[in-house]
Amino acid sequence: MEIQSLYSLYLEHPVITTDSRDCPQGSLFFALKGDNFDGNQFAAKALEQGCAKVIVDNPDVIPSNDQRYVLVDNVLKSLQDMAHWHRTQFHGPIIQVTGTNGKTTTKELLRAVLSRKYNVLATEGNFNNHIGVPKTLLRLKPFIHQIAIIETGANHPGEIAQLANIVDPDCGLITNVGRAHLEGFGSFEGVIRTKGELYEYLRKKQQGFIFLDADNQHLSSIAQELPACRYGKPGQEGLLVEGEATSAAPFLSLRWKKSTSNQWHHTDTHLIGNYNLQNVMAAICAGVRFGVREEDINEAIAEYTPKNNRSELRITQHNHLIVDAYNANPSSMNAALDNFHLIKAPHKMVILGDMRELGADSQQEHSHIVSRLQQWTDCEEIWLVGEEFAHTHSAFRCFKTVDEVKQELADHPVSNRLILIKGSNGTRLYQLPDLL
Question: What global pTM score does this model have?
Fold first, then answer.
């Protein structure tokens, strides 16, 4: 089926699903394939559950003369192509966000700031891959939304370029580049090249531009000759917005201003750590670029509260917790440790989980974290969780799994501590706060 014909079908049934267990009445079911499933085999069930049509790429599942089945060459590519076609019907600016750390936080800060003036569509959760991105684009309502913010992630070369071709962004934002997903990227240089695919796309697009952290040398080196709205530390030339942290104990406070103004704004946030400064500055820069009033920008930043185990401060009956258990890599782990080291508290404790997907560099990176911790004198207890940390043979308490930690906490409860909880999502440290 031609993409225009498929798009016409979408306009008749503008709700899509890829899950046969979730089939709104009158929706379209796209029969995607995965490593362990084939959506074609669930097409009939999707129709039974309420879908109006099913898009399949296996003719063998189509009963004779059943017009509810739509045959395409490749279901995933059809979904992506249809989403791209739908995007071309939208004439407001689209911001594509990527980076090693802080993508989701920055996206949410952008949403908070820009929503003060515009009707904004933004990626929900972390729907930032080759399936989530087209699903997000298909939520665009061209006559309702005015700006879209599309988060894109990657763990292999070429993925950002592929997603940019679907999104067709007008402007791009790379939060940072760090040592993450090295197993897929091969090296830190591979990370930079892959994230930089967003810049390469915008170079080829007329009137495309970027939001650039002027303090990040890696990004500045690959952003040459690109129109840029720059943000960074005070005193630099060519900035749209300048700012600096004034406190991070534990919440980030900052001051910022437009470079053409003498009026400083002072903002207290609900974000843990000065490593969130660049995320906040990116959102402020976008707000200024798109004409949001400075007072509204300030208010939006001050009111934003992080969720989903990302730099959250949780106060329980027994402890104060800094929960950053959604993801971890060497860059974010070191930033979290830097900030935690600066916080003054009488009784401090660290619970760290493995950093996943580091490939051949894993042992070296975990050993580096252990070496750092060995220099600390203000932390009463340090617990390490996972096989990678276990291989460092450190003198700290090591647990193979989070279940062992949960059992230890049940046997010997911890109280009156400020505790940093940081690890990759796969280590499941997010299960710990309720026990602390």
Answer: 0.87
